[in-house]
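Collaboration report, partner site 2.

Our partner group contributed sequences for two proteins of shared interest, and the home lab folded both. The records are reproduced in the order in which they were received, starting with the first partner submission.
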Amino acid sequence: MTKRPSRPAAPRKGARPATEIDAQSYSAFVGDLKTKIAEARHRAGLSVNRELILLYWTVGRDILIRQEKEGWGAKVIDRLAEDLGRAFPEMTGLSARNLKYMRAFAEAWPDGEFVQQVVALLPWGHNVRLLDAVKTPEQRAWYARQAIEHGWSRNVLLHQIESDLFIRQGSALTNFSRTLPAEQSELAQQILKDPYTFDFLSLGPEMLERDLEAG
């Protein structure tokens, strides 16, 4: 018995024929997705950095309070570094040197609200430079705001401090209108790549290797 040749299947009702992708429309779509991804990374980086800076400020404040209340001397920081290092071996940011910076950080910024709204927008490296290079609270706050406003990298911040920008142009640059570092600024890029952030989240290569070995 001879088989009849099969007829091609009729297109489903309502089905749309395949069309070529419009290059302009596709390019705009890709651009939109890139923007959304970059913005999400930017927000995530700022959020993690804020938590890290607030943690460091809290640790420093608690050390200050305990030293005043208990009468503990400077050696307690070395002991704390050893104990915290054993509890969190992946966090190199808990060294005695860094704990001393946390204490100085909390002492320099006693206003927790200001820390949350301004200083927590800067990476830890920026804050350390401010502690080392600027001694007056007024100038320190001014440089912190300007670093956010203009997206200064750590090196640019240090250059502006060393060149006495506050003295030269302080009255002309006092308007703090930006609430977040600009996404494309060097400051924002340093926040995303800050080693203290990866240290805080235990995302370094050693941690990944430990996870694989544990698995």
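Second partner submission, folded after the first:
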Amino acid sequence: MTTPHTHVIRILLADDHALVRRGVRLILDREPDLEVVAEAGDGAEAVELARTHAIDLAVMDIAMPRMTGLQATRELVARNPGLRVLMLTMHDNEQYFFQALRAGADGYVLKSVADRDLVAACRAAMRDEPFLYPGAVTALIRTYLDRVRDGEEPPEQVLTPREEEVLKLVAEGHSSKEIAELLFISIKTVHRHRENLLHKLGMRDRLQLTRYAIRAGLIEA
């Protein structure tokens, strides 16, 4: 029973097994703030139903005929930017997990623990908080640490204050000679800083450095 003040989260449920859908629907419809308003048997049907139903959240299986949950997620998110998507899957698999995040999913829930996690995941997605099962968190951290170790994705604080100054000036289009004059250092030192920046940030050229500087808030876009 919903109170007049409760915003009911309208859910599209997509899974190619009717029994699974029935079980998931029972879990969700027990909650006063969650309501399954449409059910799809595959990804293509899910995309169609999203056109004709007002939905806030899609709960998608990954492996479905005609169109997978990952393909459908990409399509749904492109058409409805405000839509939240949860992957509900039997695959405790890092590769699927990363593909789901790339496709635009807001969370990844394992079917084996759906009765424990799914309701919390739905509410988290609507609050703009990603929901990840414990194994996924471990995978994310491990991948991040591997990339740091390989020099691909260093922590943001790796740059020294002087390197940040040089990066800012490079990104603003100054030549090495101008940077040397502005910072009262030799051109040789500027070149060394530039090389260090490219190496530390895993970048090749000025364009990439400029994009990084904008992202890091060192210069205005």
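Feedback sent to the partner group on the second submission included the following. The mean pLDDT is 84. Residues 134-149 form the longest helix (16 residues).
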